[in-house]
Amino acid sequence: MKTSLVQKYNVPGPRYTSYPTVPYWNEADFTYEGWITTLKKSFAESNDSEGISLYIHLPFCESLCTFCGCHKRITKNHGLEDPYITGVLKEWSLYCKLLGEKPRIKEIHLGGGTPTFFSVNNLEDLINGIFSYAQKAENCEMSFEGHPNNTTREHLQKLYDLGFRRVSFGVQDYSEKVQKAIHREQPFHNVAKVTFWAREIGYTSIGHDIIFGLPFQTREDVIDTIEKTKSLHPDRLAFYSYAHVPWIKGNGQRGFKDEDIPKDDEKRMLYEVGKNLLEKNGYHEIGMDHFALDTDAMYEAFQNKKLHRNFMGYSASKTQLMIGLGVSSISDSWYSFAQNVKNLEDYYQILEWDKLPVVKGHLLTDEDLIIRKHILNLICGFETSWEKKVNYFTEIPEILKQLKEMVNDKLVVIKNDSITITEEGKAFVRNICMAFDLRMRRKAPENQLFSSTI
Q: How do residues 130-168 score in pLDDT, each as one tens digit?
């Protein structure tokens, strides 16, 4: 990759799990009542036809990983499990009461935090409690995130028996020096053990999450991690760029010096080395930061132009309505976003008032909805079009001017009514999406809000 392109385009930018992105939500015009109205509208439009998605945030971790930007509470007190499961099920019952009829759940994802912090019995109570208020849609996709150090065979078996068929394990990197720096020390043996267990039990999609750009990480570290990953043959991989955002997460991401972190061309080299090795080993690049074997459902969704992206990341199972349960979770009715309180004690207090623990959100405008479609098209399929009048908006000519330099750099191809991202341009998909981000362009941030795009 040309050095000049990395230097030119390595600027702070969103990862676009939503549009508008959270810092650009219009919180002043958001209301609890407005969220409920759009929730009911979306449910009426989509429940019978496609069902809904459910994201459940399980926030507890026994130790702090210093690369992590997720909302979590560090504790070894497992007595917190019971009241939290009770709280999540109370929140779900409030949603079901508002919706009026049983939701058809098409997708469930358990994220964190560390979902496998919770005991097998509590996870069983959680899932059974969810389905006591809901129906399971045909081909419901159920997935969870597992920590290789504390995921037991019993966890894997019980969740499989409950209907889970997809699991992702956080690997990050196998270098002992890197692991020590990010406070995530886990030997290859632990990852291999849980991967083999999951395969023996019958999971149809096993994923590994690895990260490039970590402190002290070298080219040899990436090669070693990919080679070890190859030996375990996961079905899909997330190959994330490390997002160094200490101004957001405070001391949790200051366990090492800035000069210990690979930057710019050095960081991009780590990605290119990893990407080339993954492709050599049969993995196909899908969307941004993701790879899959051609036997995985995510690859099939990408090929059929059905890949979707939301606050759970990429999904092969699109739904219009996604409800987030638990502290900090974000819900998406397509017409609006709503985020729960982040403080655990506030979460419990609001639930005691028989009220949803929503603290902020955004009601999408007509313009937002059109731009959201274009950004989803670009980040999921590397192309978008305004051939249909419903997809056109007045700023399109200005956006094309913004992209002229990227056309010259052969990152995008523009035709009369469409944009296609080239093979080289895929590395800059966040930058290309930023040209469509009218809210950010109209109000450039005074302080850095996002991690760098490269």
A: 999 999 999 899 999 999 999 999 999 999 999 999 999
Q: Find, among 327, 384, 259, the residue nearest to 84 by Cα.
A: 327
Question: Peptide bond preceding 357: is omega within 30 degrees of 0, i.e. cis?
Answer: no
Say what the pLDDT of residue 451 is.
58
Tokens for 4, please give them: 């000049």
Task: Output the pLDDT for position 245.
Answer: 56
Q: Which residues contact 108 (CB under 8 A, 6 or more apart)?
A: 53, 54, 55, 56, 127, 130, 140, 141, 142, 143
Taking the CB of residue 153, how many other CB atoms lie within 10 A of it? 14
Tell me what pLDDT residue 253 has: 47
Q: Distance between CA 307 and CA 377 in Å, rounded? A: 9
How high is the pLDDT of residue 6?
Answer: 73
| Nearest in space to 323 (alpha carbons), one of 308, 306, 336 | 336
The edge-to-edge listing of strands for the beta sheet with 322-325 is 284-286, 290-292, 236-241, 205-212, 166-172, 135-146, 104-112, 52-58, 322-325, 330-332, 336-340, 358-363
* Alpha carbons 55 and 38: distance in angstroms, whole number: 18
* Three-class HEC string of the chain: CCHHHHHHHCCECCCCCCCCCHHHCCHHHCCHHHHHHHHHHHHHHHCCCCCEEEEEEECEECCCCCCCCCCCEECCCHHHHHHHHHHHHHHHHHHHHHHCCCCEEEEEEEEECCHHHCCHHHHHHHHHHHHCCCEEEEEEEEEEEECCCCCCHHHHHHHHHCCCCEEEEEEECCCHHHHHHHCCCCCHHHHHHHHHHHHHHCCCEEEEEEEECCCCCCHHHHHHHHHHHHHHCCCEEEEEECCCCHHHHHHHHCCCCHHHCCCHHHHHHHHHHHHHHHHHCCCEEECCCEEECCCCHHHHHHHCCCCEEECCEEECCCCCCEEEECCCCEEECCCEEEEECCCHHHHHHHHHCCCCCEEEEEECCHHHHHHHHHHHHHHHHCEEECCCHHHCCCCHHHHHHHCHHHHHCCCEEEECCEEEECCHHHHHHHHHHHHHCHHHHHCCCCCCCCCECC
Of 1-10, 14-23, 275-284, 370-379, the range with the lowest mean pLDDT is 1-10
Distance separating alpha carbons of residues 176 and 216, to the nearest angstrom: 10
Question: Do 106 and 319 touch, CB atoms closer than 8 A?
Answer: yes
